[in-house]
Amino acid sequence: MTETAALPIVIIAAVVGLVAVILIMRRVRHQEEEATAESPFAASTEGEKRCPKCGMGNLWTDDRCISCGAHLRG
Ligand SMILES: [Zn+2]
């Protein structure tokens, strides 16, 4: 095999490797998005309690959600 014949093979191998890296990076990013989407509401934030049922922000002194009336934790 001459160098001229081997060159396209090297280029193809490089392209395949690049595509594989892009696909892996996309998959990782997609998994991160799914992990974030799993729990859209934090249990509590600064100065307010998030309703576990509807995600409404309530005052930390409240023990019931002002939106749906669900019992709040904490
Ligand atoms: Zn609620």
Distance between the termini: 73 Å
Count of beta strands: 3
Radius of gyration: 26 Å
Name the overall outline. rod-shaped
Protein model, in words:
The protein is mainly α and 74 residues long. Helix content is 49%, strand content 11%. The chain has one helix and three strands, in the order αβββ. It has a three-stranded antiparallel β-sheet, with no helix packed on it. The longest helix is centred in the N-terminal third of the chain and has 36 residues, at 3-38. The radius of gyration is 26 Å and the shape is rod-shaped. Zinc ion binds next to loops.
Topology of this protein?
Elements (H helix, E strand, L loop, with lengths): L2 H36 L5 E2 L2 E3 L6 E3 L15
Antiparallel strand pairs: 1-2, 2-3
Bound molecules: zinc ion.
Zinc ion binds next to loops.
In short:
The protein has 74 residues and is mainly alpha-helical. The chain is built from one helix and three strands; from the N terminus they run H-E-E-E.
